[in-house]
Design goal:
InterPro entries: DUF2170. The chain is an alpha+beta fold and 137 residues long. The protein has a single domain (3-135), classed as Yope Regulator, Chain: A (2-Layer Sandwich), CATH 3.30.1460. The protein has 3 helices and 6 strands. It has helices at residues 3-13, 73-84, 111-132; strands spanning 23-28, 34-39, 47-51, 55-64, 91-95, 98-106. Strands 1-2-3-4-6-5 form a 6-stranded antiparallel β-sheet.
């Protein structure tokens, strides 16, 4: 699967998306090519897509370590573990100092499945931020 194909598909949906979301895509070149995807109305929580030899990875950055209340950090980590399984199509991770939510898809995933994963990931980000607000400064 090629990132440009994903981007063209998402932007081509306009307001006819089966998820009800309108997507904008911005390629980011580098050692690993990334597609930055924003969901209309949720621009502050962009999604980042990369393609490796085995998977399509979709990530959204939530907050960094400096935003976590140090006294509440252990409780936050426990709450994240408890929330991990019931959160559909997504899981928590940490990249450097950033807490993220991610989902992975097969390289053979249909474009509609990628659109669905992005919509669910975006919804999950909003839910996580609301549920974890008590642990943040």
């Amino acid at each position: 699967m090629d990132l440009s194909v994903i981007g063209q598909h998402l932007e081509g949906l306009g307001d006819t998306s089966s998820t009800g979301f309108v997507f904008q895509c911005f390629p980011i070149g580098g050692e690993v090519d990334v597609l930055k995807v924003t969901v209309e109305g949720r621009e502050e929580l962009p999604l980042f897509i990369s393609v490796s030899d085995d998977q399509i990875l979709c990530i959204s950055y939530l907050w960094d370590e400096s935003q976590v209340d140090p006294a509440r950090r252990p409780a936050m980590l426990e709450a994240m573990l408890d929330m991990n399984i019931p959160m559909p199509l997504s899981a928590f991770a940490r990249l450097d100092d950033w807490y993220v939510v991610f989902g992975a898809l097969s390289l053979t995933s249909a474009l509609a499945e990628i659109e669905h994963e992005l919509a669910v990931l975006s919804d999950n980000c909003l839910e996580v931020i609301e549920d974890m607000a008590e642990f943040l400064l």
